[in-house]
Each structure stands twice: as C-alpha cells, then as structure tokens.
Fold this sequence. Notes:
The complex is a heterodimer of chains A (239) and B (383). Chain A is mainly beta.
Amino acid sequence: xxxxxxxxxxxxxxxxxxxxxxxxxxxxxxxxxxxxxxxxxxxxxxxxxxxxxxxxxxxxxxxxxxxxxxxxxxxxxxxxxxxxxxxxxxxxxxxxxxxxxxxxxxxxxxxxxxxxxxxxxxxxxxxxxxxxxxxxxxxxxxxxxxxxxxxxxxxxxxxxxxxxxxxxxxxxxxxxxxxxxxxxxxxxxxxxxxxxxxxxxxxxxxxxxxxxxxxxxxxxxxxxxxxxxxxxxxxxxxx
Amino acid sequence: xxxxxxxxxxxxxxxxxxxxxxxxxxxxxxxxxxxxxxxxxxxxxxxxxxxxxxxxxxxxxxxxxxxxxxxxxxxxxxxxxxxxxxxxxxxxxxxxxxxxxxxxxxxxxxxxxxxxxxxxxxxxxxxxxxxxxxxxxxxxxxxxxxxxxxxxxxxxxxxxxxxxxxxxxxxxxxxxxxxxxxxxxxxxxxxxxxxxxxxxxxxxxxxxxxxxxxxxxxxxxxxxxxxxxxxxxxxxxxxxxxxxxxxxxxxxxxxxxxxxxxxxxxxxxxxxxxxxxxxxxxxxxxxxxxxxxxxxxxxxxxxxxxxxxxxxxxxxxxxxxxxxxxxxxxxxxxxxxxxxxxxxxxxxxxxxxxxxxxxxxxxxxxxxxxxxxxxxxxxxxxx
Lengths: 239, 383
C-alpha cells in the first residue's frame, strides 16, 4: 500500500511539473489606498486624476498615487469597471448590468444604460474600457464564459467575442493601440489585438486579487489589488 | 480566441434594483467498500445521486439579500425513507434565509449553515473529497439550523465576528417544526482573523496566491436541553452517535487554522464536546458510576488536511487525517485517512473526483465497522 501511495504522489508531481510560463513583471512599489475593495481604476486623459470604483458601489476621484479627493454621491450595487472618455466617467455595475455616466465636473450621475446579460450575478461585467481603434466601448464578463462585448456610444451591442486564454478577466484598458486584459485568477496581463482581441503577448504579475488596470501619463502600468486595497506601480510594458 | 460563445453557468434576471440568480449543482458517484473477512452484505457498493440542488439567490438594492437552496435528491431520498436518521451533510433544504446588510452588523434570519467550524463552513463544491471529515460532517454537532445570525467584519474583512441564536435542534427542526419540550435555544459564537488579507472559505489554493495567507478561528456553542419531568427529546434527534442533541447541557468549542501559498494549502481543526446529561442513567455514561463520570462526558477530536493544486495538470490532490473519540468514558478512538483527487475539467464547475478512505484504527466498542477501505468515484457539475 505504501508503494501505491508513493507512485500516486510521484505521478502527480510529474504531471504538475508541466507549467506554461509567461515572463514575470515585477512591480516597482505599491501604495495602500483608502478605498474599500477597489475593483477597477482609470486615469483621465491628462493622467492627473485617477478614478477608482469599489465593490460597494461607489465612485472615487483620487490623485495619481491613490489619495481620495472626492466621492460620488450616487451609490450603485457592485461597481466593477470604470473608464474615462472626454468629460465623463463611465462605470459598470456588475450585478445590475448597468452602465452609469457621471460628469467629471461634479461627479454627478446623469445617465444610465441597461446592457442585458443573463450569466451569473457575480460573473457579469467586470471590465469596462473604450477601444480607440474601433471607437467602441468594451464590456467583458468575468467568467463562465468570458464574453467581450463591443458597444456603440449608446451602449447598444454591435459585436461579441469569446475569450478563452484565461480563467477569468477582471479588468481591461486600451493603451498605445492595444487592448490590455487583466486576469485575476491567472494573475496575468494580456496584450491583445484591438480588433480581434487575439492575444499577442502576456505577462505574469505577482499581485493578489488584481482587479483594476490602468496606464499613467508616462505609460507605466498600474494594477489595483482588491483584497489588499493597494495600487501596484510597474514600469512601462515592452511594446 | 474568438468564436462562438459557450453556454453560461448560472442565470440572472435583473430589473435595475433587484437581481435574482438561478443556479444548481448535480453530482453522482459510484461507491465500493472493501469489507472485512466474513462480511457478506455489499449494499454500499452502489451508484448514488448525491446532489441535485437548485438555488435562488437574490439581492434587492444594497441592503437586502435572500437565498433559497434545496437538494431535490435528498428530498426524494427522505420521502422514500421511513423513520431513519437524517443525514446532516445532505439535509434536503440547504438554505432559506433573508439578510439585511444596511447596518454595521449584518442580520440573517432563517435557515442556513451555522457559523461554527471551518470544516463545516467550507463549500463542498470546492473539495477534492466526496465527504467531509467524520468529525465535521454533522454527527458531532449540527451544521444547519433556524435562527438569527449577526455578522460583523472589520480590518478590511480580515476579522470576522459571528454570533447567533438558534433552535438547537439542527437540521431536524425542519421535520419537527416545534422545539423540543425544554423550549430552550442554542447560542453560537465564532471569531476568525486572517492575514495579510481576507481569506475565503476554500480548501484548495486554485489561484496559487503569490503571498502566504493564514487564518485562525475559534468558536463555541452552548445549549441546555434538559427535558421537563415526563418529557423527552424527539426521536432520532441525537444523530448517528447520539451527540448532536442531548437531554442535558451541551457545550462545544473548537479552533481551526488554514494556510495557503502557491498552490499548497492546509487546514487544521479540533473540536471538543462537553456534555452534562441530566439523567444519571443516561446511555452516554455507559453504566459508569457518578464517582467515575462526575456527571460529564467528553467527546471530540481533530483533523488535518493538506492539499496541492497542480494547475497545468488541472488537478487537486488532498490528504486528510482524522482522529476522534466518541466518549471519554469508553477506551478507544478512531483514526481515518482520506485521499482525494479532483480533476478539474472546467475549474470546480465540472469535476471528476476520486475519494479513497482507509480506517487506520477502529473504535471497536463504540463504532465497530464492517469495512476497512472504501473508494468513491464520480462527477459533479455546477450550473
């Protein structure tokens, strides 16, 4: 019997040795952020303001280092995605399948769209980004399955893609002509073709529960950790 | 990469303020027992539909939520049985509660898992085993009950405090409706602390967390079900070992710990029962005199489990050791070894599981067994 146990354990270890690798990105430093469960981050066009959304349904305006400057009065249920386009901040409420628009001057919600999706309540829109190549908004469901939906400016779906390169997707951002997708469970950043969403490159990151991805004014990568309530600052990604 | 979108698990309806999710879980296995020499009854060599669960899970605004979850397989099985003890790990009705989260303390009212024992609170869906450890599966203490639970989290959810009051009859309250003749309730408290971040109730580290994470918890429960003169507890309420509910005072306490890092994880838990039967002639005293038993019976034990998740092999391997004593007035203990293997076809959504049991040491007086080893292999699917 002992021999059987040993053989089983040895077989398991051999099987587990086959490991797909992606280059590791090391962060330069991190900062704690006074936002409970930050679930996505987005810089404005100038890179001087960082918007952060929280699992408790609140939008925060922060300094680039994560210091809270203002918070919106309107509260949703479960904010998981944020994007800045022009004078507006757009926020995705995962559970209710809603997109809210806030004007940046007053952080006041002025419009809401309903984007139907019938999958799991906590597996809804985990990411919101604006694809400047296609000039479409992009929302991505978290998992089971991962669905990339392109929406026009009235948030009407115009195209849909399946994404199978990760177990989940927790964030998305357009940067320098590419779409970057973030996976929480695989702790990976994927650089994707902006029109097909095919993976071009990927990197591993050592951040617990990464849920938000953004690029600062110098093109450096910033990742938000939900569980640790921190921002992790990286160097610019190789192109 | 791109292509047709596969079918989704779980379905959600929302009207802008209220979201309702439908979900389910189905599992079936084949069980084979290796009997002792001379044992001829092989009734446990069989296929079994273990789960056929359907769940409704809703949120209304930010402050109300509710959940109803039933296991059709257990309900059907219970309907076919006549006078048999309810299996606490498969009680049929699994959850039916409403929760208000608009105060500093979350308030849950209804029927649900009790905030007691890490091994009981862990979700079965995320285990490589087909059964919880014997100490924690509901024969030493009830795992579900009707009552009210207060929960408070602090320090970024690293500290969680639970307190609640329940009927004390556990899963049997569903069949009984009324409390026992004592009319008394059970009180439960639990505290756990995790570091460096909140720690979800999972066995295997399928995320391969990049930093070492730990959690430790303590919990206790008390009830006094001393029966009024001429009255007695409902039948079959004591469970497999007669320990879940007793005529008398019952105090239980335990502590647990959990660790995970880069695919490795481990859980440890210990439980102690201190029973004070109200009758000197209680079966729990096993004919010992008061000068020996001093009116108190103790039971309990511990279990330790280690797990490794090999993501490239889509596999989780778990090894569990259990050691428990059913009554300190009777010499003997049971030691069990369990090896679990899960092949994750689609994460824990679709899993093939193999569970091997071995009795290392048998308590021949209190728990004589007809078998030495057991293998259970089957599949589960969450939708």
